[in-house]
Each structure stands twice: as structure tokens, then as C-alpha cells.
Amino acid sequence: MAQRVGLECSLAVSEAVKLANADVIAAYPITPQTHIVEHLSELVASGELDAEFVPVESEHSAMSACVGSSAAGARTFTSSSSQGLALMHEILYIASALRLPIVMVVANRALSGPISIWNDHGDIMSERDINWVQFFAENGQEVLDLTITAFKIAEDHRVTLPVIVNMDGFILTHVIEPIEMPEQNEVDAYLPPFVPAQKLDPAKPISMGMVGVPEVYTEARKACVDALEKSYPFIVEHWNDFAAQFGRHYKPIECYKTDDAEALFVTMGSLSETAMTTVDELRAAGQKVGLVHIRLWRPFPTDDFLAAIGESKPLMVLDRALSPGCNAGPVATELRALLYAKGKTHYVANFVAGLGGRDVTRADFKSMMAKTLSAAKSGAPMPYEMVGVKE
Amino acid sequence: MADEGMVSWKSLALGCAMVEPGTSKRFNTGDWRSRRRPVTDREKCIKCGLCYILCPDMAFSPDPNAEGYYNWDGYYCKGCGICVKECPKDAISWQEEKEEDKYGPACGA
Amino acid sequence: MIEVRFHGRGGQGAVTSAELMAQAAIAEGKYAQAFPSFGPERRGAPLQAFLRISDEQIRLREKIYEPDVVVVLDPSLLATGNVNAGLKPDGVLVVNSAKNVEAVRGECQFNGRTAIVDASKIAEEELGVPITNTTMLGALLKAAGHVDLKAIEKPLAARFGRIAEKNLRALKRAYEETVIEE
Amino acid sequence: MSKAAEAIKNVEKISPKNMPLVEPLSRGHRACQGCGEVLALRQVLKAVGKQVIACSATGCMEIISSPYPQTAWEVPWIHVAFENVAAVASGVEAGRKALIRKGRIQDDNTKVMAFAGDGATADIGLQALSGAMERGHDFVYVCLDNEAYMNTGIQRSSSTPYGAMTTTSPPGAKSKGQSTWKKNMPLIAAAHGIPYVATASPAFHLDLMNKARKAAAVPGPAYLHIYSPCPTGWRCGPDTAIEASRLVVQTRVFPLFEVIDGRYVLTRDITKPKPVADYLKSQRRFAHLKDEDIEFIQKRVDEEWERLLNLVKATNPEAK
């Protein structure tokens, strides 16, 4: 029987890695990811998790060691944040190009400068094109569950790609909340041992990471993006299987009270919860709004998103990162491009909020929605707005 | 665009790996050699094996028919001349070669 | 839903207080959230911790701006002037202080419901250290009554192991000795 | 006897009579004519054989051995990036260690090896190497030192010797070429307290191959620093690699030694050294140096040799 416990969400990640029986963890500490790796080293030290914990000297080496370990055929996990993720940047592309099913939890944090240890999505938005499968978790339960599914999806031979589970730094990592902890035998039934599609083995020598001469580089990239684009049905399949076994159903795009909604919030990550409460409060006040929240960021679930937003409703898209010099935040830019390509005419208002740990409250959501509705009414395009900037 | 040497993306191994070892053996580096080739005078050869162990291109290999001697392979020899220079008995010397018989015994294919 | 804000100094265990209470509530089948104020503070600096407890799922990821309860772990923080910021008029201020209610109210300009206990003295006597986090939980339980006193025992044992007994004794004594002024 | 010395004792020595015929690095690679680096790589691999997993840093040896679809590797091989080969190797080692312990793969005595140039070792990859050595992974790290960034076009590295001309240390009115002394990587490796460190040169191929075998036999990190002439980058004829790698030892510019569990051992004593000028004058990268510069370098070489002898004395107190 699954047990309901009060647990810090970071520790829930570590417990998920233990339940997944990972073989190697290579990690370097960085706020706000630290509790994840601290607890993992405790689990290894106590013998509860039989794994090699490689305390590398940098994040660059963390991802490099993960590449080596995964290529050797070991189930491999790491976790990072912000500057650490940026330091990994170079190797992130190589991990997916080599098709290594590494799982990483990113405790999302702002990028310097100025240096900020607090939450936003600037770190992960800089890693949008690394060809990894990417999820955004909204609470501790989800981060535990998605981490377990991440191994299954990554290691599925029809996918064979690395996976990132994003969780908001501090807002999730340092929060204690109720979490259903699955039993080991339940997870074992869901997640079989890792069988690598290929590995470094003297009995069958292969060469990995060859020089991509101009005659092959384009084809190599094509094969890699194709794998990501085609991973969608398998992600859904594994999430459905998870639901069948554990009773918690995750979908690439989630809807909250959208059916009769006249305008929609679009969010990603833990603020989706605040947005839900905001929807409830606005509805109680007579305003029919709804929420579409994005759980699967890569590959982007275009059809699910289009189905979720319906026809012509104004969208209030929340970005938690800047795309300087562009006319919108990264999520809004992408959604606008998608809508244009599909001939849709939804009004898209874009707000950049919650940078570097700035709290985003229900009051903020309400104000953003009010601005969206009035701008949509006028029909005039609205430049993106940085919420709460002190003039 | 010419598509010589190109393969379909669908036929690439996972992660663009090369699952067959040592495929470079098919690659002809003999045509890097210009005008001349090293030739061993087996009368002078003392079977020390330096030509074998000091060749960066593995162009020398043990002669299966004459123990202690080494065969030269024009398919790989790039013509650096280390063997000529390092042979302690000056048993290896340069010999002019024509384009048509450049590759010698092509045992690499 | 009840929202609690803890004020303490780095090292005094305000975060632990919030965590233990959340765990107790969760163990009772309730929903709860405990989180620190995510600052760069180090030992000694004033800091806050937050706690939400509810019978329904909590879907909020914002700080607590209008708490129902404020818990002050260190009497010297009263004078900083912001411990009762946003505290609901019908809320309760739970204070570690050796002073009487008039003196406490005078220090922080709050005239609502006030619960006072000399937690420093209890902690010193029961634990041998002036760390008031578990002691103040006794006062909080008495003042707010949102979680059963028994529910705190298990999380306390899990956190403190051998010294859980002593902490529970301090907590229970604070529960008894807390004086509530309406 | 120390652990490393114990492990080394049982190594089967290579002599001209039992030269291994195995070629884990295949023919048909694309190294320059007369490349001393690929020769050093070949000799190392011949010595350790095929029970290895090889990891390469970006650089000449990686480029020339793996242009798709031609791999020169007969053993499992991985290349990831420039600065991280030691980290990649430590991951491979940790992964296999976990899998062996959990009974998922057999312990087949596979040695994990990392290969990198001097730039990837002494400059951009030094941190990753230091980390991997400090953590004590069971692997052999081989630095193939051709004394500059040859792959990108002969730019100076911290391993470029004083006075050498490179494309980023050109001699001129205000420059003598490289203005700093060569970074002493073997001593940096030894300072980590790892069980085995050695220097080698392909002109002394038996010494090199036996050191490679010892490095592979030692449990824990082993570091091999191999002098690897680059005739192209050093502006020399394609047949000069062996001559250079002999002279560099005979002039005491590149001493051959081992550090076994902290004990320094001179593996080739040079009692009658040739003048450093003989070495410098054989390479056009030093052609601009004047007599006084050569004298300056000679003095430094003498001092470094003394320092090494002192290290040998200091770490072998029982010897006379």
C-alpha cells in the first residue's frame, strides 16, 4: 500500500530515484537543487540505494560522467539548476545526440546576473533546443511520479532520449507537502530494469561520438529530432500505464474549467496551482475564465494544446523568462508561431512574471487577466509586459 | 547536390554510432604518398622489427611466410619515411614509384 | 484553511517548526504546506517560515501575506516592528516572552488575541538549550488548535530520535503554560 | 610493498621477442604523415590490448580516428567533448562498477582509458582530470603531448615549451615565441597522490609499452604523459618524429621517470646528456632562438633535471 507522507518535494525526487533503482548518480551541488543530491548521497551511504554516487567537481563533469555512465549501460540520474545547467549546456546536446536515456531533475532558478538563487525559468528556457524530452511538474507528487515515468520513457527503445523533469526552485524544492509514496514492488512492476539499446562493451565494440562530416551531420540531426518528435505517443502511453497502476493520470496539456471559459490563463510549472485558485476566485466573482497548463514542453504537444484552447478565446500567457530583443517571452513566442501556422486568431497577451523569485500572487493573476481582456476587446496588439517592475 | 558517400538518416545507427569496429581499414591512405615508396632489402634486414613498431600507419606487418621479416602495405603507407630513417642497418630505402602501381598489395580491402 | 507565519532567527528552528506541524497535519489526513522564506540569511538573521493547513488540497504557491497566526520564536524580534504585518484582526499572535501581555502588545502594536509563553525558559530547563522551535509548537497548538497534540509525536520522534522525548516534554509544558489573552 | 608496486610486479614485460601483434587502433586512420602522436597512441593500445573501453577528448587523435563512417577503433570507444574526457571516463568506470556489483554485467577486467592531447589535459580539461584523479576512479589517463593545439592550427598551450613558435606565440621584435615554461603535468598528476604516474617517449617504445601495461595493472588512477612529436606543427620533416623523441630524452629536456605510490624512479638515467641546442636546432619552431636564448633554456633544463634527481633521492630514502 502506498503511504501518504509529509515530505519535502526535493526528498520526493531522491526517493523516486531510489524507487527507480538508479545505478549511478553524478552530481554537483547548487542551490536550490542541493536537498535532492544530499538525500541521494544519504540513501547511497545507508545502503538503501545500491548506486555509485560520483561527487564530481563541476556540473560540466556531472553531465559528462552521466554520459559515460549511461553509455556503459547504467541507469543514470543527475540534478542541477541555473548556472550549473548552463555549465552543462555543451554536453546536454551531446547526451541526446548520443541517444543516452539520462534522467535529470532541474530545480529551476534564474540565471545571473545579477546572481540570484531564486526561481524562474530562465535556466531551462536557455536549454530549449537540446533535444531532450522535457516535463514541468506542478507539485511534489507530480515531481515524484514524473521522475519515475521519466526513466521508463527515456529507456523505451522507441524513444531512447534523455529526459528533464523541471520543478520550480524553492517554490517546490523546499516545500513540505503530502505525498503518496509508492511501494517498491509497485514501481518495480511499472519500471523494468534498464536494457540499453547499445553500450560500450569490449565484447561488441562500437564507436560513439564520431566526427559528423558534412555528408552525415544533417542526417544525424534529422534522426535525433525525429526521435524527439515521435516520442509523443510513447510518453502518453507510459503516463496512461502509470495512471492504470497508480491512479494518478498525467496528460501533456491539462485543462482546468476551460469548457465554458471566455478567456484562458496559460501557465507552466508550479504557478499553475496558484492560477487554479485564481480561476476559482474569479469564477466565484462571476468571471468565466479557465486555465490551460503545459506539462509536456518538449516535444510540444501541438494538437493537445489546440484542442485545449478551443476557438478564439483570449489567452493570457505567463512567461517566467525573458527572451531579450524578441517581442515576447519564449512560451508566448512559440505559441503565437504555432497559432499562426494553424490559421488561428486567438488574442495572445503575454506577461513575464516571477523573475528571480518575485512572488506571483492571485492578485497578480487577476490583474494580468483584466489587462488581457481589455486589450483583447480593443484588438490592438499588446507588447509583452514585465509584471511588477518598479519604475 | 552530389550525394556521394551519403546515407539516409533512417539507416544511421542509434546516436550516429558506428557499430562495426575498425571500418577505417577500408580507407586508402596510400594515395597520400608522393612519388616514392620504402623498400626493404631483406639481405640487409636483421629482423629487429623497428619498421613495424615505429610505423604510425601500421603499414608493416609480420610476413606469414618468412618469420622475422615484415611486409609493407602500400594501401596504408603515407610515405613519411620514419622506417627509412630509423632502420639501424639502412635496409630500407626509397624507390621511385609510378602512379599505376602505387598501392602495392592492397590487403586492406 | 489556516495560514501561519513563523518568525525566528537563523538557527532557532523556525523552519523545523513549520515542517513538524505540516507533518503532523498530514499524518492526520489533512493537507499542509510548509516552506521557508527562501533568503540568503545565515545563522542569527531574522527569518520567516510559512505553514498552511487545510482540509482540502492546497493550490497556492505564494507567500503568506495575511496570516491567521503569527508565531514569534525569539522575543527580541517583537521590536523589529513587522512581526504582525498583515496578521488578520481576528488572528492570533503567539509569542515567546517572559513579559506580560501589555508589555508584549506595546512592543509590537498588536491588540488582538495574544498567546504568551516563556518558551526560552522552558527550553533552557527541559532541553538545556535556548532553542524554542519545538517548545513554541506547544503554544501554537494551544492557541490555534488546528492539529491534535498527539499527532505531533510521530514527526517529533522521526526528527529528533533520542532527544524526541525531551522535546515533547518541553512542547507539552508550553502547551500547559501558555496564557491566552483575548 | 605498496599496492601499486605489488600490482606492477606481476605485469608481463614486453620485449622485442614477445611484441604484441594486436592493433586495437586500426589502420586507415587519417593522421598526418609521420605523426608521432598516433604512433604513441598505437603503442599504448598494443601494450594494453583489447580489453579496454577508450574515451577520447576532442583533438587530433579523435578527428583522425573517427570521421563518420570510418572508425579506427577496434575497441569500444566514446568521444564526447574537449575538456571532459576524464569525467566521461569516470562515468564509464562508475557505471560498470555499479553494474558489476549489482550482478548485471560480468567483471571481465576491462580497463577504462582516457586519451587527450596537451591542451585537453593541461589547459581546458585540467579540472575534470584533477577531479577524476582525486576521486580515485580506476582508469588510465594518457596525455599525448604534442606541445600545442595542433588540431586547430598550432596555437600555444600551457604545455608549449619556452621559446617555441606557434601561431599564437609568434616570435617578433617584442617576443621570443612562447614566453612561459612548459607546465609540468606529470608532477601535477603526482601531487594528487595517485598510485602511478609515468612519462614516456615513442622512441623508447619498449619502455613506453611497459609503462602502459603497468598503468593498466595498477588499481586506481594512473597517468601517462607521452611526448608526441608533431612534425607538421613543429615545422619538421615527416620522418623526424622518432629522432625528436629520442633527442628530447638524451638532452634531458623530457626525462623518463615513474612515480609509483609517490616514489620517484628515473627509468632512463642520462649520464652524458647531449646539449639542448642539438634538440632545439632540429626543429624549425625554435629556429628564431639566439645562442643566449638557448643558453637560458639549457640552464633551466639542468635545474629541472636536478630537481627531479632530488625528488628521486627524497622519495627513496633507503637508496644510497
UniProtKB/TrEMBL annotation, chain A:
Origin: domain of life: Bacteria
GO terms (BP aspect): carboxylic acid metabolic process; response to oxidative stress
Pyruvate:ferredoxin oxidoreductase core domain ranges (all copies): 261-364
Keywords: Oxidoreductase, Pyruvate
Gene Ontology molecular-function annotations: oxidoreductase activity, acting on the aldehyde or oxo group of donors
Pyruvate flavodoxin/ferredoxin oxidoreductase pyrimidine binding domain ranges (all copies): 16-229
Pfam families reported for this sequence: PFOR_II, POR_N
Xref: PANTHER family: PYRUVATE-FLAVODOXIN OXIDOREDUCTASE-RELATED
Name of the protein in its database record: Pyruvate flavodoxin/ferredoxin oxidoreductase domain protein
Organism: Desulfarculus baarsii (strain ATCC 33931 / DSM 2075 / LMG 7858 / VKM B-1802 / 2st14)
From TrEMBL, chain B:
Domain 4Fe-4S ferredoxin-type: 36-65, 68-97
GO MF entries: 4 iron, 4 sulfur cluster binding; metal ion binding; oxidoreductase activity, acting on the aldehyde or oxo group of donors, iron-sulfur protein as acceptor
Keywords: 4Fe-4S, Iron, Iron-sulfur, Metal-binding, Pyruvate, Repeat
Keyword hit for Zinc: no
Superkingdom assignment: Bacteria
Cofactors: [4Fe-4S] cluster
Metal-binding keyword on record: yes
Pfam families tied to this protein: Fer4_21
Alphabetical list of SUPFAM superfamilies matching this protein: 4Fe-4S ferredoxins (SSF54862)
PANTHER family: PYRUVATE SYNTHASE SUBUNIT PORD
NCBIfam families xref list: PorD_KorD
The protein's name in its UniProt record: Pyruvate ferredoxin/flavodoxin oxidoreductase, delta subunit
UniProtKB/TrEMBL annotation, chain C:
Domain spans labelled Pyruvate/ketoisovalerate oxidoreductase catalytic: 10-176
UniProt-listed InterPro entries: Oxidoreductase_gamma_subunit, PorC_KorC, Pyrv/ketoisovalerate_OxRed_cat, Pyrv_flavodox_OxRed_cen
Taxonomic lineage: Bacteria, Pseudomonadati, Thermodesulfobacteriota, Desulfarculia, Desulfarculales
Protein name: Pyruvate/ketoisovalerate oxidoreductase, gamma subunit
GO-annotated molecular function: oxidoreductase activity, acting on the aldehyde or oxo group of donors, iron-sulfur protein as acceptor
Alphabetical UniProt keywords: Oxidoreductase, Pyruvate
From TrEMBL, chain D:
UniProt xrefs under CDD domains: TPP_PFOR_porB_like (cd03376)
Transmembrane spans: none
UniProt KW keywords: Oxidoreductase
Stretch list, region Disordered: 160-179
Residue ranges of every copy of the Thiamine pyrophosphate enzyme TPP-binding domain listed in the record: 58-226
Alphabetical GO biological process terms: small molecule metabolic process
GO molecular function per UniProt: oxidoreductase activity; thiamine pyrophosphate binding
Domain of life: Bacteria
One Pfam family of this chain: TPP_enzyme_C
Record has Oxidoreductase as a keyword: yes
Record's protein name: Thiamine pyrophosphate protein domain protein TPP-binding protein
